[in-house]
Sequence to fold (271 residues):
Amino acid sequence: MSVVTALNQKGGVGKTSTCYHLAGALALGGRRVLLVDNDPQASLTQGFLGPQATRALDPSETIAAVYHQEAMAEQVIRGTHVPGVDLLCGGRAAGSFNVPDPHLTDWPLQTSLRDFLADVSGGYDLVLIDCPPNLHLASWTSLVASDGLLVPLQPEDFGAQGIADVQESIDRVVSGPNPALRLLGFLVTMSNPRLSVHKGFEQLLRTHYGDAVFTTTIPISTDFKEAIVQRQPVAQYKPRGAATKVMKALGEEIFARLAAADEPTAAGEAA
Ligand SMILES: Nc1ncnc2c1ncn2[C@@H]1O[C@H](COP(=O)(O)OP(=O)(O)OP(=O)(O)O)[C@@H](O)[C@H]1O
Ligand SMILES: [Mg+2]
Fold:
């Protein structure tokens, strides 16, 4: 079992969509996934429950209870209508915990999500955590709890994609509470292969970051949007569609990268 966080402090780059559709594709392939909605906007939760039921959730049924360090699994984790996908709901109540300078907060708060997941994650092949578009406490607890980080970004406006800030956060977490955290990769999302500016960005990214960029690129596709309107991940909405094929490829690449990260290095073997 591995824990992966989708994070970029830039808004609207595809963090939530990636978690949602990836979970569906993995589940279609027989894997068991726990989605953690660690964004007080609760977009991921809305993707399953809709906006009204999401607003009606009692804080004790959401990740806020994890931050209060009083959550019991059966209280906060629910099954979804997608077989194989469970959800730890998000909600506005968790917003009061999402403070800046998270490394200065109480230690039990910083490790609250990691401690909770340690008790429940055995039942899953992958835990996937969605974050808000900032690097405050919610994102910090996600990184503290994770084996790997996936950074979605749009193929435009290189300087605005927040790569340097994300890398700074990784360094802080690695030199502090979670030395085991690894960057799984940058994921190009919403790519339009017909736009030369998108192609150019992707080339530049691959030149700069090489293998740190996922081979899989997520194309812009109305199938992703239509699926969400139907409250279904794209793999359940159009199991044979091109968008589903891409999400399945991303899932396989994530597991391959996690396995590669677990392999001992040549130096480690020699030691
Ligand atoms: N591959 C895609 N093709 C078409 N539309 C997409 C694709 N990926 C995401 N979108 C759309 O782009 C918008 C932003 O995506 P999403 O909500 O996943 O981003 P986010 O990074 O989670 O945003 P926030 O920072 O607000 O949490 C949504 O309307 C989503 O449906
Ligand atoms: Mg989001």
Q: What stands out?
A: Residues 2-258 form a domain with the Rossmann fold fold (CATH 3.40.50.300). The pocket of adenosine-5'-triphosphate (ligand 1) is lined by residues 11-17, 39, 43, 133, 189-190, 218, 220-221, 224-225, 228 (CB under 6 Å). The chain has a mean pLDDT of 93. The chain is about 45% helix and 15% strand.
